[in-house]
Amino acid sequence: VDRAYLRSARGALKIARTLVALATLICFLASRAHEAYAALAGMETVITVLFLLLYLLRLDARMRCLFWPLADIFNSVIAALFLLVVCLFAIIIRTNKGTLAGGVLGLILLVLCLADAALLCKKISLDKARGRSAPAK
After folding, report:
1. Is residue 100 part of a domain?
2. Can you give 2-27 as a three-state secondary structure string?
3. 103 is a domain residue
4. What sections of 57-67 are H helices per DSSP?
5. Considering its fold, how many domains does the chain have in total?
6. Does 102 reside within a domain?
7. Is 122 in a helix, a strand, or coil?
8. Tell me: the pLDDT tens digits for 21-70?
9. Which of 22, 30, 32, 121 is the least crowded, having the fewest Cβ atoms under 10 Å away?
10. Region of residue 129 (phi > 0: left; psi between -120 and 50: alpha; otherwise: beta)
11. Which intervals of the chain form a coiled coil (predicted)?
12. Which residues are CB-contacts of 2 (< 8 A; sequence separation ≥ 6)?
């Protein structure tokens, strides 16, 4: 278990994303909003927890078949696009206060997704060179 990851900015951001996505899901479920709203919030919660566990258990270092930070960036950007559309609909339609609260929390989650993608892009660009292009020692 990588305890340093939990104390890092990336780890704290993943935890915050998970908690806000869970709160968004609870708001949408409690307000009996359209199923698409709850499905998006639920999927975002599950995917974020899986990425959190991947980095926490250092599975990204063991499973080298995929460049995990790039997959995480892709997930964050796609989630942000979906959240923008769905949460704006939830805020505009606002059938009740729960749907409105879920939409606002979803927009906060959108900002967290974009911040996570920016941190990951910074990490990728600042890491050392990999593979054959790495300088010889």
Report:
1. yes
2. CHHHHHCHHHHHHHHHHHHHHHHHHH
3. yes
4. 59-62
5. 1
6. yes
7. helix
8. 999 999 999 988 888 888 998 999 999 999 898 888 888 778 888 788 88
9. 32
10. beta
11. none
12. 55, 56, 57, 58
